[in-house]
């Protein structure tokens, strides 16, 4: 694929997985909707404009369950409005803020703290037993582990290990007779 | 395992299906996995207005009902976020008027109109004709050709 196929639009670095995954703001579970009001032209709205341009894809990627909306040229001053699960509203005035200031305020007001994030990571680690295998785990089948029975797709099992095999105790090749002897 | 959350979104009233039933269009962002880019995706919901008198082009907050009485009305309008034509600044509560060119508080706009009644007429002086453009500019060549 030619490079021009993917390098479209202004600053296409925003459309890389590495950039999306490097977002730092994880919104709290109570936050359901975030609206950003700003204008296209005023200098005082520059921080809000740049926050939407650079950080909105990251914010949406880190919080897929939250609805993010922008309202352009509707209000004279820039602000961010968040709707919580309980019905309450949080309004953050970002007049004449830089992009970094807006990002820090959103993270400090609506984002999860380091303590919450570390506690959630710890809970995930305890639930995920590394010994598990199957769908959704790192190892799909026990045949991948050395020392265990090999995969029947690769090696044909003997008859007595197949499901619909019925032991015939009177057959001369039966392993049951071999054990008795 | 996290519990599935009930619907809570903001949408725009697109149509009125009945005096107290509105069709709300909700925009959510969906990631295109090939371009790694977010595009707007639009869904429509039938919502019960309840005590709110919503009109077309209002932005409303809809939530799923705790006990829906009708099968076709599962969602309800809990709040009108922005009424069409009646924008209010959330911090001061004052009305706001304007568009992309100029937007300001209604009181300030009315004060300007009162103090400068000829403000509208002065806009004519900003317009220029082809005679005003100095020679050498590409626009002059275009206008006079």
UniProtKB/TrEMBL annotation, chain A:
<dbReference type="GO" id="GO:0003735">
    <property type="term" value="F:structural constituent of ribosome"/>
</dbReference>
<protein>
    <recommendedName>
        <fullName>Small ribosomal subunit protein mS25</fullName>
    </recommendedName>
</protein>
<keyword id="KW-0496">Mitochondrion</keyword>
<dbReference type="GO" id="GO:0005840">
    <property type="term" value="C:ribosome"/>
</dbReference>
<dbReference type="GO" id="GO:1990904">
    <property type="term" value="C:ribonucleoprotein complex"/>
</dbReference>
<dbReference type="InterPro" id="IPR036249">
    <property type="entry name" value="Thioredoxin-like_sf"/>
</dbReference>
<keyword id="KW-0689">Ribosomal protein</keyword>
<feature type="domain" description="Ribosomal protein/NADH dehydrogenase">
    <location>
        <begin position="40"/>
        <end position="113"/>
    </location>
</feature>
<comment type="similarity">
    <text>Belongs to the mitochondrion-specific ribosomal protein mS25 family.</text>
</comment>
<dbReference type="GO" id="GO:0005739">
    <property type="term" value="C:mitochondrion"/>
</dbReference>
<dbReference type="Pfam" id="PF05047">
    <property type="entry name" value="L51_S25_CI-B8"/>
</dbReference>
<keyword id="KW-0687">Ribonucleoprotein</keyword>
<dbReference type="InterPro" id="IPR007741">
    <property type="entry name" value="Ribosomal_mL43/mS25/NADH_DH"/>
</dbReference>
<dbReference type="InterPro" id="IPR040049">
    <property type="entry name" value="Ribosomal_mS25/mL61"/>
</dbReference>
TrEMBL record, chain B:
<dbReference type="GO" id="GO:0005763">
    <property type="term" value="C:mitochondrial small ribosomal subunit"/>
</dbReference>
<dbReference type="InterPro" id="IPR039193">
    <property type="entry name" value="Ribosomal_uS17m_metazoa"/>
</dbReference>
<feature type="region of interest" description="Disordered">
    <location>
        <begin position="126"/>
        <end position="145"/>
    </location>
</feature>
<dbReference type="GO" id="GO:0032543">
    <property type="term" value="P:mitochondrial translation"/>
</dbReference>
<dbReference type="GO" id="GO:0003735">
    <property type="term" value="F:structural constituent of ribosome"/>
</dbReference>
<protein>
    <recommendedName>
        <fullName>28S ribosomal protein S17, mitochondrial</fullName>
    </recommendedName>
</protein>
<dbReference type="InterPro" id="IPR012340">
    <property type="entry name" value="NA-bd_OB-fold"/>
</dbReference>
């Amino acid at each position: 694929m030619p490079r021009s196929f993917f390098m479209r639009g202004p600053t296409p670095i925003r459309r890389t997985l590495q950039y999306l995954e490097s977002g730092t703001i994880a919104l709290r579970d109570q936050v359901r909707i975030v609206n950003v009001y700003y204008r296209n032209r005023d200098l005082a709205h520059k921080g809000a404009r740049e926050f939407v341009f650079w950080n909105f894809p990251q914010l949406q990627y880190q919080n897929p369950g939250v609805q993010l909306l922008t309202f352009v040229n509707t209000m004279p001053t820039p602000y961010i409005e968040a709707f919580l699960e309980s019905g309450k509203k949080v309004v953050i005035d970002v007049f004449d803020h830089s992009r970094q200031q807006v990002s820090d305020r959103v993270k400090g007001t609506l984002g999860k703290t380091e303590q919450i994030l570390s506690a959630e990571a710890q809970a995930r680690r305890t639930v995920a037993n590394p010994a598990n295998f199957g769908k959704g785990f790192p190892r799909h089948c026990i045949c991948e582990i050395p020392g265990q029975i090999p995969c029947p797709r690769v090696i044909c099992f003997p008859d007595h290990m197949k499901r619909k095999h019925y032991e015939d105790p009177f057959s001369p090749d039966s392993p049951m007779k071999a054990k008795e002897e | 395992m996290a519990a599935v959350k009930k619907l809570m979104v903001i949408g725009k009233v697109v149509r009125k299906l009945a005096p107290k039933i509105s069709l709300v269009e909700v925009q959510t962002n969906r990631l295109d996995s090939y371009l790694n880019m977010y595009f707007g995706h639009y869904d429509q919901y039938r919502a019960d207005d309840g005590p709110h008198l919503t009109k077309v082009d209002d932005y409303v907050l809809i939530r799923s009902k705790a006990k829906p009485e009708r099968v076709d009305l599962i969602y309800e309008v809990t709040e009108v976020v922005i009424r069409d034509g009646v924008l209010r600044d959330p911090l001061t509560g004052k009305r706001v008027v304007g568009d992309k060119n100029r937007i300001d508080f209604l009181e300030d706009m009315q004060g300007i109109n009162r103090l400068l009644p000829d403000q509208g007429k002065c806009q004519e002086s900003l317009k220029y004709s082809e005679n005003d453009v100095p020679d050498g500019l590409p626009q002059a060549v275009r206008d006079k050709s």
